[in-house]
Write a structure and sequence with these properties.
alpha+beta, Rossmann fold, Immunoglobulin-like, 6-stranded mixed sheet, 6-stranded antiparallel sheet, 9 helices
Length: 620
């Protein structure tokens, strides 16, 4: 898992044109709002991240109540085993409990002391109400929210406040997804889920326990987003082939202090012996490969720790019939991992290094191949995978000082830290790119994100600041999906993925698409919404009942599959208020008009006591 407090050191951003609107303008969200008046109302956003500050104004509605249906703090064990918590871990807070706490002076029920979960949830669906002009609002400003706190990042003490130790248990992923499924079913709303964690390592082919859990979640009807990762820009992926009796010398340049993990995968049918050469020239090994799929060899050699595992013993629960060789290096300098083909049927290997990215200079100096830096969770076969590109070189901080970080790429370019495909089984990744350099979004006082005025935005009342990387691009895409579900709640995960891929722009930066840097290009929210609407019309047409035009300036026509004696057409607002109801006798075609303001409306067509069809229709 990515220890993301380092991301704040890499930020690139905003704002030669004023702070706040640039990402929205880049993906044509302003046109979406002006043409369709979408807010995400009636859609559920599930955020799996580092927790939430539920007291932030972004997540409080116009009546002063919380927008959270649930918060599941998986790290707080005080509620484990409570009647409302059959999940065995964590503490569950429902809407009423959160609302009561919000209106009291009691200590917070759950916190995000780091700031990442609050910031990224704000990008998806913050309403911007922390400032009078709401310029820092997110995408789906009236969506209902579930927050699942699954991890902690480590950070040191700051501003007289204590630091925090890291927590990560990947077994929590399946529990989080089960909780999400249960609550989505309970609330009965169309939903989109974002898990905003992950870094390089693992089989990266969709076969891990965690990727398969994500695919099961999507297959049960729940669209799921996972960013491609922040491990781009460095030689951190190696691949090659070894023949019988031959050797491969993988040279690892460990330039940064701390632990470096080398993670190599190869066929269960093969056997590699392993030797190590330290920076001082001393050699360890060769060590014989474990025998059979249930075999394993674990060795602690001081600055080198090796875990060599058969295919049933790997650390990721992969079903790919591949062995895993994990090596942890704790020293610095040039290490060599020497593999020899003792028994070879296949001979291919794939290896990764973590941490290793454009800002951390650990790297392979032999057998390095471009791309392949995608995080394992993003390799699930059914999820939606965004990457991140740059739109502006700087931002104004809370004191009005223009801030600018170098080395982050120029406007229009892919962010250099964005991971790339393909997956280890050769599939395309990502699906598309969204602008994440940089977002201005919810920050809370006394969090690590808000520790410096440099990261807080001008005119933000100290409540909004910077977020970058794929951690900003993925929430932007998730918010757009929420708006797609507002106009067409029947969209399947597969349809959403296809629509997003088909709603991209190409330019000189993207080159010929699809490719493993940009996917299908730069996401256009306006096209995505229009394509979501059009698909709904096509689906209705297949059922021999069509409403058109959709979108409309007001007038519309409904063609029924046959003539009905008694037809009633109701036009309702999305919250369910009936604004008109008209009856028609002996008709197959109905013409009517929406006389309200621009927005999304529901059309219900009844014949006698039977509902023939319900449509969502857009008035421009």
């Amino acid at each position: 898992m990515k220890n993301t407090f380092t991301l704040l050191c890499f930020l690139c951003a905003y704002s030669l044109f004023g702070q706040g609107p640039i990402p929205r303008a880049e993906v044509n969200l302003n046109e979406v709002y002006s043409q369709y008046s979408l807010t995400g109302e009636g859609v559920l956003v599930v955020m799996i991240d580092r927790g939430i500050d539920y007291s932030h104004p972004d997540f409080i509605d116009e009546n002063g109540d919380t927008r959270f249906a649930y918060i599941f703090d998986m790290i707080d064990q005080t509620g484990a085993g409570a009647p409302n918590n059959p999940y065995g871990v964590g503490t569950v807070f429902d809407h009423n409990t959160i609302n009561t706490a919000l209106h009291s002076s009691a200590p917070p029920l759950s916190m995000d002391r780091f700031g990442h979960g609050t910031a990224t949830t704000g990008i998806i669906c913050g309403n911007g109400s922390g400032t009078a002009d709401r310029q820092f609002h997110g995408v789906a400003t009236k969506a209902t929210i579930i927050s699942i706190k699954i991890t902690h990042d480590a950070f040191p003490s700051f501003n007289g406040l204590p630091g925090q130790t890291a927590f990560w248990n990947p077994a929590y992923i399946a529990i989080a997804l089960q909780f999400a499924k249960d609550k989505i079913a309970e609330l009965g709303l169309p939903s989109v889920t974002l898990m905003n964690i992950g870094s390089l390592g693992g089989p990266s082919d969709g076969t891990s326990t965690y990727s398969r859990a994500i695919d099961d979640y999507v297959a049960s009807g729940h669209p799921f987003v996972c960013g491609i990762g922040d491990d781009g820009g460095r030689e951190n992926n190696a691949s090659g082939n070894i023949a019988q009796g031959e050797t491969a010398e993988l040279v690892v340049n460990k330039a940064v202090a701390g632990n470096l993990r080398f993670d190599l995968w190869y066929s269960e049918d093969d056997r590699f012996t392993v030797s190590f050469v330290r920076p001082n020239g001393t050699t360890e090994g060769p060590f014989t490969a474990p025998g059979g799929p249930n075999g394993y060899v674990d060795l602690n050699l001081g600055d080198i720790y090796m875990a060599h595992r058969g295919s049933n013993q790997d650390g990721w629960g992969s079903t790919a019939y591949r062995r895993e060789l994990i090596v942890d290096f704790s020293g610095t300098g040039i290490y060599k991992v020497i593999l020899k083909g003792a028994t070879i049927v296949n001979g291919k290997f794939n290896a990764s290094l973590s941490p290793s990215n454009f800002a951390i200079n650990n790297k392979f100096e032999s057998y390095a191949v471009p791309g392949g830096s995608i995080n394992d969770f993003a390799t699930a076969k059914l999820n939606i995978v965004p990457t991140d590109y740059v739109i502006s070189p700087g931002w104004y901080d809370i004191n009005g000082v223009f801030r600018h970080f170098t080395g982050q790429g120029s406007p229009g370019e892919i962010w250099p830290g964005s991971s790339e495909g393909p997956t280890q089984d050769g599939r395309l990744a990502p699906d598309f790119a969204a602008p994440g350099e940089i977002a201005l979004c919810a920050h809370s006082p006394n969090t690590y994100y808000s520790r410096s005025p440099n990261t807080l935005a001008q005119n933000s009342n100290g409540l909004y600041g910077i977020q970058n990387a794929v951690s900003a691009a993925a929430p932007l895409a998730t918010g757009i999906i929420a708006l797609m579900l507002e106009v067409n709640p029947d969209l399947t995960a597969a349809q959403i993925k296809t629509i997003l891929r088909n709603s991209c722009k190409q330019d000189a930066f993207t080159g010929t698409v699809p490719n493993n840097t940009w996917g299908y290009g730069k996401l256009d929210a306006l096209l995505a919404i229009q394509n979501a609407i059009t698909l709904g019309v096509e689906q209705a047409g297949r059922k021999n009942t069509v409403v058109y035009p959709n979108p409309t300036t007001g007038p519309f026509t409904i063609n029924l599959d046959k003539k009905y004696i008694d037809v009633n057409v109701q036009i309702l607002t999305m919250p369910g208020q009936i604004i008109s109801s008209e009856k028609y006798k002996d008709t197959k075609k109905v013409t009517s008009e929406i006389k309200g303001v621009a927005g999304v409306y529901l059309i219900k067509v009844n014949a006698g006591n039977r509902t023939l069809k319900s449509f969502k229709i857009i008035k421009q």
